[in-house]
């Protein structure tokens, strides 16, 4: 089983794919897409959409996890972020993955054991959780792996779950 | 020459295609897509994206016009609206149309001659401007035709314009 975690932004877009092995979950692939800040928004949206579809087609995750949006931003930045989020949700839907949304608090709780953890704490914990000693994991990449990790935690606890428990969370 | 105007919403999505004829611009097609309110957001986004791509493929407009977002909403509604807007901008970009954004004030000014006009005034003026006596034009359909009309006005004045004047407005 594979899970793709996404951390959307209008300039940096973090992604991380986790794969389940006998011994636990391991990082299969992760990185950051850098969208050109001088490109018009529609160009950046097309770039993000195409890249995420390609990542899904390459790694074939059954699940895609994304953080619920932090809505304390200004309406202007919420609108811009919403546009990027929209094309990512679209890519996940068109590739027939199962979409899951998690509150930022749940993601931090799963990664650090503390819902109020800092970005730096998430960044420090993710390589340890995945037994992955690669240093220099960027914040956006760590956040994407953290939301995938949170999803992995929820999926693995009840091995058999009633249909629809998580599906449709992304309303 | 053809222009597609779009009025995005998370439940109702207005569209209108104008075509230039010798005598002026006429309405070629218009309507409202009703997105199912009980469907999860990713399903609605996929429905909106597919429908708008199909409208573009059917009518082959060279230009797509959309209102700049009214950002006085709450961050929550800006995020939801942003998601819909994102997939429409993406559809326009992937179909290689030229995208134009207009301030709500410019759209009302073009349609009614008054930047502070009401929705009802726009709804009443659009059929007259297009010499189209069809009654019962809905607000979302009228808004979509109004933004296309605003774009038509800007395109027709200087027949030859310097490259890039409007292109890239959707930043």
UniProtKB/TrEMBL annotation, chains A, B:
Metal-binding found in the keyword field: yes
UniProt-recorded name of the protein: Crossover junction endodeoxyribonuclease RuvC
Enzyme class: hydrolase
GO cellular component: cytoplasm; Holliday junction resolvase complex
Known EC number: 3.1.21.10
Enzymatic reactions: Endonucleolytic cleavage at a junction such as a reciprocal single-stranded crossover between two homologous DNA duplexes (Holliday junction)
GO molecular function: crossover junction DNA endonuclease activity; DNA binding; magnesium ion binding
Cofactor info, note text: Binds 2 Mg(2+) ion per subunit.
Binding residues for Mg(2+) 2: 67
Highest taxon of source: Bacteria
Database matches in PANTHER family: CROSSOVER JUNCTION ENDODEOXYRIBONUCLEASE RUVC
Keyword Nuclease annotated: yes
HAMAP family noted in UniProt: RuvC
GO terms under biological process: DNA recombination; DNA repair
UniProt KW keywords: Cytoplasm, DNA damage, DNA recombination, DNA repair, DNA-binding, Endonuclease, Hydrolase, Magnesium, Metal-binding, Nuclease
Lineage: Bacteria, Candidatus Eiseniibacteriota
Active site as annotated: 7, 67, 140
Binding-site residues for Mg(2+) 1, renumbered to this chain: 7, 140
UniProt similarity note: Belongs to the RuvC family.
């Amino acid at each position: 089983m594979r899970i793709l975690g996404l951390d959307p932004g209008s300039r940096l877009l973090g992604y991380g794919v986790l794969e389940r092995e006998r011994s636990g979950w391991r990082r299969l692939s992760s990185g950051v897409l850098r969208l050109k800040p001088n490109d018009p928004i529609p160009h950046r949206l097309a770039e993000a959409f195409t890249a995420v579809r390609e990542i899904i087609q390459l790694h074939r995750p059954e699940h895609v996890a994304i953080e619920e949006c932090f809505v304390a931003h200004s309406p202007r930045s919420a609108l811009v972020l919403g546009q990027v989020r929209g094309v990512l949700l679209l890519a996940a839907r068109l590739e027939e993955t199962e979409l899951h949304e998690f509150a930022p608090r749940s993601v931090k709780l799963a990664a650090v054991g503390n819902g109020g953890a800092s970005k730096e704490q998430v960044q420090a914990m993710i390589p340890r959780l995945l037994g992955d000693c690669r240093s220099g994991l960027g914040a956006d990449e760590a956040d994407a792996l953290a939301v995938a990790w949170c999803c992995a935690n929820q999926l693995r606890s009840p091995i058999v779950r009633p249909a629809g428990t998580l599906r449709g969370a992304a309303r």
